[in-house]
Amino acid sequence: MKISPIEHKFRSVFSLKPLIDFWNRTIAASDDGWRPLVEGVRAKLALAPELHSPVQDLSILKPHADLLKTLMSALFPIAYWDKEALGALVPYTLEPVLVSPTFERLFLNEDGEFRGRLNTDPQDFLRARLMRCSLLILQRCYGIEKEVDFPLLRVVTDPDTGLDRYFKIKPDFRFVDVHTIGPLKELTDQERTTIMERLTEPDIILQILPPENFELQGFCVVHGVEVTTSEVMSALERDLIARDSFISTEGFSRLQERLRTLLRRPELYAGLAAIQNDQIYMLNKGCEMAGACIFSGSRHVAVEEFKGSVFDRAVTNRQILTIRDILEEPNRTKVEEEIIQYGVRSMLIAPLFYQGELIGTLDMGSPYPGDFGPGEAMTLNQILPLFAVALRRSLDDLNNNVERIIKEQCTAVHPSVEWRFRKAVLRHLEESVGGRHSELEPIVFRDVFALYGASDIRGSSEARNGAIQADITDHLGLARNVVNLAQSVKPLHILNELTYRIDRNLDMIQKGLNTGDEVSVLNFLRGELEPLFPLLREYGSGVSDAVGAYIEAMDSNLGTVYRRRRDFERSVSALNQRISGYLDREEAEAQVIFPHYFNKHQTDGVDYLIYLGSSMVENGAFNELYVRNLRLWQLVIACGIAWHVESLKRPDAVSLDATHLILVNCSPVSIRFRFDEKRFDVDGAYDIAHEIIRSRIDKAMVKGRDERLTQPGQIAIVYSRPDEFQEMSRHINFLQNQGYLRNDVEPLELDDLPGVQGLKALRVGVNIESAALAEVAGRS
After folding, report:
1. How many CB atoms neighbour CB 508 within 10 A?
2. Quick one: CA torsion of 250, 251, 253, 254, rounded to 10 degrees?
3. How many CA atoms lie less than 13 Å away from 152 in the CB half-sphere?
C-alpha cells in the first residue's frame, strides 16, 4: 500500500548511512573475527559513493543488489532469509527496498504494493504512522522517551492454500535518523506538558512540531511474525459467543472457515450434531451448506440410527477419534456410507460435553486419506470447550423458543404429548426462516383409546342452595330482632312496616330460593334497614346490643351472613383436594408404567379424561395390554376415591356423598388439538358420538325406574358392546376377590338420552370396610 501525496505529511528518504555507521561502529569493534568481512564491505562501498548519500530514486540500488544484501545480512541472518517474512522499507512511505522471498510472496503484489488487509481501518493506520513518527522525533531530537503500543496485524491469503494467515507486524526504527530542516525549535514547558498528555493525538503534536521541519532518513526494518493460531482461536471464541454462530448458515460457514485456517486444510468440512433426549440434530454440514433452519438447516435423526457408527465409537470412548480413511473402516454402517458419498476420506470426531453431560459432537472431514493426525487432534482439543458452551447455549435458546411458542399457541401441554408439539414447532421454525409465513401444523392423534371417569359430589347444588337459604334466613332473623326491639321502645308505624317486609322475605326464602332472591333481600336490608342503625342504637342498650350482634354476624368481606355456606364450601374444598391429590399421585405412578395423555377437571368433584395409543408415543411402541391395565386402574381408583370420601365424614363438618362413573369405549377415536380453545377434542363426525355420550351420561336414568344411574358408594360402568361388558366383568370379579368391591353387581339398561341410545351399565358397591382397600388407598 503506497501513500498518496495527500497523506504524505513527513519528508522521508531511503538512506544506508545508519546501517553503514552500524557496520563501522558496532561490528568492527566487537571482534577481530569480523574485520575481514567489514574491510570487504568498506572496499565495495568505496566503489559505490552514491550509496553514502540519501537515495531518492530506488532504481539506483539495482546495480548494487549483492552489496545491499551483504549490508542487510547484519539484520537479516541468512538462515532465516528464506523462512521468515523480513523486509527493509522506506520510513513512513513503507516503500519496499529489500524483502525476503517469504515477505514478497505473502505481502506484495506484482507491482510491489502491499496486499491483504489490516486489523484497522485506513484512517487509524495513518494515525498510527503519524504517531510513531512523532514519537521518533521526540526521542531523537528532544530526548523524550515514550512508548505507545499500537499492535498491527496484517491478514493475507496464502497463495498456496487460499486460506487466511495472520501476521503481527513488528517495526524497528533503529536505522532511521531524524534530520531537522532549519534550526530545531525549542519547546516551552506548556508544549512539553501538552505533548505528554496528548501523545496519542498526533494532530495536536504535529501542530507543535510541524512535519515540514523534519526529514526521516534511513530505513525501517519490518518482521512479520505469524500469529494465525492465536488469532483464529480468539476469533473462534468471539464467533461462538455470538448467538448466530449455529443458527444461521452464514454464522456456521464462518466457523468452518476459521477451522480450515486453524488446521491449514482448505478443503476441510465441519459438522455439528446436538444430542437432546433420543434425538440428534444434525447441524450445518460444510459439504452441504444449503438451506436454513433454527440450527441452520438441521436434520432431526433418532439416536438409534448412529448405533455402531464411528460417532458412536467416539461418544462411547469419550475422546477425539481420528480416522485415517473411512473406506478402511470394517463393518461400515449407513452413517459411514453416507459420509463416503460426500467425498470424505479422513475424519476427526470429538464428543462435546457440558458439565459432564454429553450434548453433541463436532466432526471434521477431508477428501484426502490420512489428512488428520495427533497434531490436529491436539489443536482441536483446545477449542472443544468453546464449542460445547456455544452448543449448550444454542440448545437452551432453542428449547426456550419452542417453549415460548407452545405456551403462546397451546398453553401448557401434557408431558406425554409434548414431543409432538415440539416437533410441530421445530418444523414451524424451519419454515419461518427468512420471514416466510408459516403456521403450526395440525396436531392430530389417530386411533387412540379414550377412557373417562368421574366422581361427583351428590346433591351439591341442593346442598349449596340449602346453605344459602339458611344464611339468608339467619340474616333476616337478626334484622327482625333489631326492628322488634326498637319497636318495643318506640312503636313507630314505619318499624311495623319493616317487620312486615322482613317476614314476607322470610316466607319467600323458606318456600324456595329463586334466582335473584338473595340479591333482592340484601338490597332491602342494606338500603333500608342498615342506614337506620345509628338512630336505632339511641333507643337503648337492648337495641344497641341487637345491632352489634347483627354486625358481628356479618362476613367482613361479603357483608352478609356466611356461616353455612362457608362450612359447605370448606367441606367441598376438602373433599376435592383429597380426591384430586389421590388421583394425581396414583396417575403419576400409572404414567410411569406407560405414557398417556391425562386431563383432569375439578368443580364439585373431579372428572378426568385419558387418551393413549401408538400415535401418541414418539417411537410408536404400543400394546393394547396397557389400555386394559388402565381400565382396571380406573376401577381401583374409583374404589380408592370412595374410601377417601367416606374417611372425610365427621360430625363437625357438612357430610357429603360422592358418586362414581366410568365410561368404557373400546372403539379407537381420533383427537385433534384445537388451537383456538387450547384443548384436545375428538376429530370427525363418527368420533363425536363419544363426546356426546361423555357429556350426557351423568344424567342417565335406569330404564324402567325413576332412579339415577349414579348412586353414592357405588361405581357405575357405562358400556355399549358385549366385549366391553366381558372385560369389565372380569375386572369386577377380580376386585371382588381382592375385597375392594361388594358382591352386588347389577346389570342395567339405561333410558335413551338425547342423541344417545342403547347404552347399558354395570353398577357395583364399594366395600368401604375392606382392610385391603384401606391399605391400598390409605398409603397415598
Report:
1. 16
2. 120
3. 20
Q: Are residues 101 and 184 in the same domain?
A: yes
Nearest to 133 by CA among 211, 219, 222, 54: 211
Q: Which residues pair with 491 in a beta bridge?
A: none
Q: Are 591 and 598 in contact (CB under 8 A)?
A: yes
Burial of 564 (0-12, 13-18, 19+ CB in 10 A): buried
SS (H, E, C) 486-501: HHHHCCCHHHHHHHHH
For the chain, counts of helices (H) and of strands (E): 25, 24
Beta bridge partners of 597: 611
Of the ranges 258-262, 276-280, 652-656, which is most confident? 258-262
CA 239 to chain centre: 18
- Which pLDDT tens digit goes with each residue over 516-556? 888 999 999 999 999 999 999 999 999 999 999 999 999 98
For residue 447, give the 3-state DSSP assignment: strand
Residue 650 and residue 706: Cα distance in Å, rounded? 31
Q: Rounded distance, CA 463 to CA 472, Å?
A: 14
Give the pLDDT confidence of 579-605 residue by residue, as tens digits.
999 999 999 999 999 999 898 988 888
Is residue 602 located within the same domain as residue 490? Answer: no
Task: Specify if 456 maps to a domain.
Answer: no
DSSP type of residue 451: E
Q: Give tens-digit pLDDT for 358-390.
A: 988 999 999 999 999 999 999 999 999 999 988
Total of domains in the chain: 4
User: Is position 158 within any domain?
Assistant: no
Residue 58: HSE in the Cβ half-sphere, 13 Å Cα cutoff? 16
Which letter, b or e, does each residue of 206-242 get, where b requires 16 or more Cβ atoms within 10 Å of its Cβ? bebbebebbbbbbbbbbbbeebbeebbbebbeebbee
Q: Are residues 543 and 607 in the same domain?
A: no
What type of residue sits at position 99? V
pTM more than 0.90: no
Count other Cβ atoms within 10 Å, centred on residue 616. Answer: 23
For residue 473, give the 3-state DSSP assignment.
helix
Cβ atoms of 447 and 612 closer than 8 Å: no
Does some domain include residue 760? yes
